[in-house]
Amino acid sequence: MNIVSVITGMTIMGVAAPQIANMSIQPFVAQKRALNFGVAEAAAVTFAAKNEGATSLSSTPSLCDAPDPLSDGAYSITCTEGTGTPYVQTVSRSFRLQQCDDNDGNNGHGNSGGHDCSNPGNGGFVKDLRVFDFPPPPGFTGHQCLITDNWGLDTDAFDREKNKWKGKSCTPNAAWHNAFYLASDPNAWMYDINKHNGWGEHPDY
Questions:
Q1: Phi then psi for 106, rounded to 5 degrees?
Q2: Whole-angstrom Cα distance, residue 92 to residue 76?
Q3: Where are the beta strands (DSSP E) in 18-168?
Q4: C-alpha angle with apex 60: 84 to 40, nearest 5 degrees?
Q5: Radius of gyration, CA atoms only, the chain
Q6: Could you identify which of 3, 16, 156, 171 might form a hypothetical disulfide with 140, taking C-beta atoms 3.0 to 4.6 angstroms apart as the criterion?
Q7: SS3 state at 91
Q8: Does the reported pTM lie above 0.85?
Q9: Distance from C-alpha of 18 to C-alpha of 83, rounded to nearest angstrom
Q10: Backbone phi and psi for residue 47, each to the nearest 5 degrees, phi listed first
Q11: Sequential pLDDT tens for the chain (205 residues)
Q12: What are the backbone dihedrals phi and psi of residue 90, each rounded to the nearest 5 degrees, phi first?
């Protein structure tokens, strides 16, 4: 072997050595990244599954960023494992909270059509308060309801199909005057008007 062959061989080895060394550790790198991906995915999938259809978000895992709101109650959760290392892996999963069709606040009157996240039930009494078949309107106009208006429920202000108000209702007779209010029977009310207009708790409520 002459000097030229030796030098040529050494040159080739010098160039190839780093590449060979890099190839030799690739299985370890792939294994480490796969492990981190599995941890991040498990955290994201578990959180998404736990919150899918829930009424509120649960606490965010330590591996994850705060859920990112999308639209229509949908969120995205991003979890990361291996931060600060060359093997960092990030996984995102989406989920959707339960939507409230009829959220009239926690008034104790149960659901009044669709799903009402704010109230617990739809029959009998809830927390010793009455349950009505219809939700109270967002307000009253200055017009008194006719008998045929049925407390405004049979007017354009109320959507029978969705069981939701589209605007203010005409004022039913029981809510027209304090004397009418006190003389009315809460069992005959179509929706809750208790304490309406600052008239206080109805004695028979």
A1: -80, 75
A2: 7
A3: 68-69, 74-81, 89-96, 140-144, 158-159, 164-165
A4: 45
A5: 33
A6: 171
A7: strand
A8: no
A9: 26
A10: -65, -45
A11: 566 564 555 555 555 555 555 666 778 788 888 999 999 999 999 998 888 877 778 889 999 999 998 887 889 999 999 999 988 999 999 888 876 555 454 454 444 444 455 554 443 333 335 677 888 999 999 899 998 999 999 999 999 888 889 999 999 999 999 999 999 988 889 888 988 888 888 888 7
A12: -125, 135
Q: Does residue 77 sit in helix, strand or coil?
A: strand
Decide: 55 and 117 in contact? Cβ < 8 Å. Answer: yes
Among candidate residues 56, 185, 200, the one with its CA nearest the CA of residue 130: 185
3-state helix vs strand vs coil in the chain, percent to 5: 35, 15, 50
64-95 exposure pattern, b = at least 16 Cβ within 10 A, e = fewer: beebeeeeeeebebbbbbbeeeebebbbbbeb
Contact 159, 165 (CB under 8 A): yes
| The two structure tokens encoding residue 119 | 């109230």
Token pair listed for 109: 């009157």
Q: Is the dihedral of CA 154, 159, 164, 167 positive or negative?
A: negative
Helical spans, DSSP H, in the chain? 3-51, 178-183
Q: What is the distance between the terminal CA atoms of the chain, rounded to a whole angstrom?
A: 110
Q: Which residues of 98-119 are buried (b: 16+ CB within 10 A; e: fewer)?
A: eebebebeebbbbbbbeebbbb
Cα 132 from Cα 126, distance rounded (Å):
11
CA distance 91 to 44: 7
